[in-house]
Design brief:
Helix content: over 70%
Number of helices: 5
Shape: rod-shaped
Radius of gyration: 38 Å
Distance between the termini: 14 Å
Order of helices and strands: HHHHH
Strand content: under 5%
Number of strands: 0
Structural class: mainly alpha
Number of domains: 2
Length: about 210
């Protein structure tokens, strides 16, 4: 839940609480008047100004006391709700920043491993056998490092999901001791399998990043 959604929910709740508070205040004032009428209902309407002053003092004293108490309670309530809103807003912001930072780390790790895997095409077409072998070794090592050491960024992804891709890299690396010819049926099959598995790899990682 975002911070602004939390604030809207709390505002709606506060409006309901204020309505209830004003209803209670109205009921207490009415009860105060009814109590006065209960004890003095048999009295005639006075024409003495001092009697009306006494009545005004009674009403003002009791009613103002109720209003003062309600005002104090409302003040404390508002301060409490503001504090609660700020607390939830801070919590929501911290959680948002945490998820944002973690997503940035995932995207960075994914970009690095993608760049590394893209070197596969250059490696297998490199005419220098030793450079080809070294490049393929680095590619596979970095790929394995991503799978093993980035698990905290992708906790729901199992290393076994990319086992086929690793097997292909390992097989191509085994072929590096020979002269690699991309036109041979064996290499064509490995390249096709690599293309298929690399597409699945990208799809799986991208879906995971977008789902978080």
């Amino acid at each position: 839940m975002h911070a602004h959604e939390i604030e809207i929910d709390l505002i709606i709740m506060n409006i309901k609480n204020f309505k209830i508070g004003f209803i209670i205040l109205g009921v207490l004032i009415i009860l105060n008047l009814l109590l006065f009428l209960y004890y003095f209902h048999n009295q005639t309407v006075s024409r003495n100004i001092s009697d009306w002053a006494s009545f005004a003092s009674y009403i003002g004293g009791t009613t103002n006391t109720l209003i003062s108490i309600m005002t104090l309670l409302v003040t404390f309530f508002i301060a409490y709700e503001i504090s609660k809103i700020e607390g939830k807003r801070n919590t929501a912001n911290i959680e948002y920043d945490r998820k944002k930072f973690k997503r940035e780390l995932r995207e960075k790790a994914y970009a690095e491993v993608s760049e590394n895997l893209n070197d596969f095409w250059f490696a297998i077409t490199n005419g220098n056998r030793q450079q080809t072998k070294d490049s393929l070794f680095i590619i596979r090592t970095r790929f394995i490092s991503f799978i093993k050491h980035k698990k905290h960024l992708f906790p729901d992804i199992k290393p076994s999901e990319f086992q086929n891709l690793d097997n292909i890299l390992k097989e191509v690396l085994n072929q590096a001791s020979k002269k690699i010819d991309v036109d041979t049926p064996e290499m064509i099959k490995l390249v096709e399998d690599f293309q298929k598995e690399i597409s699945l790899f990208h799809k799986r990682i991208q879906e995971y990043i977008l789902s978080e």
